[in-house]
Amino acid sequence: MNKELTPDLICFSHLRWNFVYQRPQHLLTRFSTKYRVFYIEEPLFHAENSFLNVAQPSDSLWVVVPHLQNGLSEEAIISTQQELLSGLFNEMNINSYWFWYYTPMALPIGNFFKPQWIVYDCMDELSSFKFAPDALKEREKDLLQKADIVFTGGMSLYEAKKDSHGNIYPFPSSIDKAHFEKARTISDEPRDQISIPHPRLGYYGVIDERMNLSLLQEVAEKKPDWNMIIIGPVVKIDPETLPKLSNIHYLGGKSYDELPAYLGGWDIAVIPFVLDESTRFISPTKTPEYLAGGKPVISTSIKDVVHPYGDQKLVHIADTADEFIIAATTELEKEKEKKNLWIIETDTFLSANSWDKTWTRMMEIITKIEESHKVVNNSKHEAYV
Questions:
Q1: Whether this model's pTM surpasses 0.85
Q2: What confidence tens digit (pLDDT) does each residue in 271-286 have?
Q3: How far is the CA of 309 from the CAs of 44, 62, 326, in angstroms?
């Protein structure tokens, strides 16, 4: 497909491209097969002179990081980014384009430009997260008014937002099933995990205010012969608050490519999130990923995990340490025949779920908007002929 004949996709995101590989990376790498994609991160403040750092991690995809001077006013922060992006548009011949927002906080920057259409992929209720900006809710209201299409990262978030926009669609977390299925046949253990005794209960993902640290600690204390493996970066919380027990192992952040090797060595995968406003609308991508790896899963009663995974008996739901221990004991003692039957049921359920299918369905919706804009533009052109 000739990308020169299609508009460019400009994405504004609160997430660093190289932080944790998740929804934005899965979707935008697929969009880059049709469009040139420019992924605009939030600014870093330290430079003597403001500039853009532009990297190209793959064909037709650029990651753009504004580096700004310290001490700029809020107005100057916005105007400087507008000026820098205008220069990028000129340099890269970005003339026809559309916007994809992950963060409403970028709206004042985007308002300077004239995109053909706007998509808001509301993957989380960001206003409920720790250190969320005070202006976020108001800017989201403005973004919902401007957006042509709204996607949500889960069903509960869709239910909360569905009355705020007339063209909104739920797209819960998907999987790259083939990638995580590698966990089923991993033979070589990672060096930092190989010496940890079984049974192993594992978690990978961001370690932040959403983690139920007291639950982890209580399970570890009650079952000292079980080992908890925790993989991921610690953000927004003091690392000193993490429970320090000999059977809890913090292995740090790992790349997306490394995750199946770690997952393959676990007996059980866990999602130990707190139940509060920060997790009320989340749809953890790790749920289907764990299942694709062939691992039994125990999760606290996150709504988008309970429905559908808990309802289908594919995931254990447990909110207390005793409930976690009962569920884990059940899995550790499960007969092989029952495990094989569960694998078949899980694979059947996951067969309809993939990032490729999610992207294809999104493209069908976006194509309708794209075609409608072509009709409008052609009509304008004919009016001047």
A1: yes
A2: 999 999 989 999 999 9
A3: 39, 36, 18
Tokens of 294: 């062939």
Helix (H) or strand (E) holding 302, with range, is none
Which residues have a Cβ under 8 Å from the Cβ of 32 and sit 6 or more positions away? Answer: 9, 58, 59, 60, 61
Which strands sit side by side in the sheet containing 200-204, from one edge to the other? 248-252, 227-231, 200-204, 268-271, 297-299, 316-317
Structure tokens at 162: 């569905």
| Cβ(290)–Cβ(346) below 8 Å | no
Per-residue pLDDT at 264: 98
What the block records as the tokens of 244 is: 């320090």
Identify the H or E element spanning 260: helix 259-263
146 in the same domain as 260 = no
Nearest-angstrom CA–CA distance, 96 and 326: 57
The total number of structural domains in the chain stands at 2
317: tokens are 């739901």
Residues 89 and 154 in one domain: yes
DSSP for residue 360? H
- Same domain assignment for residues 314 and 360: no
Q: What per-residue string of b and e applies to 122-138 under the rule 16 or more CB within 10 Å gives b? A: bbbbbbbbeeeeeebee
- CA–chain centroid gap for 191, Å, is 27
